[in-house]
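ok so heres the complex, two chains, lmk if somethin looks off
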Amino acid sequence: MGPFAVAMIVLAVIIIFMGAKVVPQGFEYTVQRMGRYTMTLRPGFHIIIPVIDVIGAKINMQEQVLAIPSQEAITRDNAMVRVDGVVFYQVLDAAKAAYEVRQLEHAILQLTMTNIRTVMGGMDLDELLSQRDRINAKLLNVVDDATAPWGIKVTRIEIKDMQPPTDLIDSMARQMKAEREKRANILEAEGVRQAEILKAEGEKQAAILAAEGRREAAFRDAEARERSAEAEARATDMVSTAISAGNPLAINYFIAQKYVTALESFARSPSQKLVFMPLEASSVIGSIGGIQELWKGLGDAGASGSGIPSAGRPRS
Amino acid sequence: MEHFASVTELLVMDHWTWAIIAVALVSIEILAPGIAFLWLGLAAGAMALLLIVIPGLSLGLQGVIYAVLAVVSVFLGRKILRRNPIATEDSLLNRRGAQYVGRVFTLENPLINGRGKIRVDDTTWVVEGPDLPAGTHVRVTAVEHVILRVERVEG
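and the predicted structre for the whole thing:
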């Protein structure tokens, strides 16, 4: 085989190796003809003119994730917070991503970092910690607009971690604890107050009921007294009626009886003392005399002659 | 040169030799995919067939013909592929904007001066179209880089 033939074969091999291009799925290659961008090769088999055409950039068309390194940012209320996050982006226009911007990833990263600072600087710490979705939306809006000329689409930006300084975290924890303790104390006081009120209510109720009881009892007592007075009056009335209707001497009988009984009980008294009492025998006699009178009365009523019935008195 | 010629003189370049070269090149292609060796292999196979038809070509001529065949095979390959494009199950892979063509969205904010933004799934896209008030339903008709073209959905 002659040298010419060998040279031809070498040339053919070079042409094939430089001209036949297979672009894998997920990538797009830009082609530069004499240094100038001409076209973009999509996934598949392509032939470019060797030497004249050169593959410029191999752009990854998949969605990619960039980690945003942790950085310190100052909030509106002057708290230093450490934040990091992630950016998801996808190249939509390979040519723009290749030629409109140098170091695409670096550019996206810097843009996102500065915008995180901007957004955080306009918010208070409390807002920051509670409104991440709003921060994410704001960031996405700004960064997406800014990166549009580079032919990329930023699909989402997420703040991953927010770390306020340790002493701030401590005071936040203390604040939360105090808040809860306050609530607990208030609840306890409420409970005590309720209990006291209920107790007082109970006592009031009890007092009212007791007074009502006493009032009722007093009423009943008064009634009883009235009734007994009434009975007394009636009894007296009846006695006086009886006396006025009958012989007053009948009373004397009863009195005398009582008198004698009293004397008897004195006599039987176990005390060894002598009891001197002004014994008016005459009145005892008198009372006996009264009995005699009674008899007389009875006798008159029964048409009998003498008061005292004498034993062995012959019948007339 | 004397020495080089003598080495090639020792090689008997008949159709069998080309067939062996073809098999070797295709094997290399299978082991290390990169499409380049395939054409060289195909050209070697063609040379083997050519030598069956016209035996006794000089070595130099064989080399030149082989070189030409190799280059021609690449272009033939591309022509065949253009006529019969590689079928894919998902032609929208890695073409994010194109996935939205034909879908209908609702404008949250009005389109002013032919530009605005719509919420698409969990992100936002810049759209271009006629000026429309918020709340209008729009259909994506095309995608241009990072901008979706929209038109009003009637009804």
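quick notes: Residues 59-83 of chain B form the longest helix (25 residues). thats all i got rn
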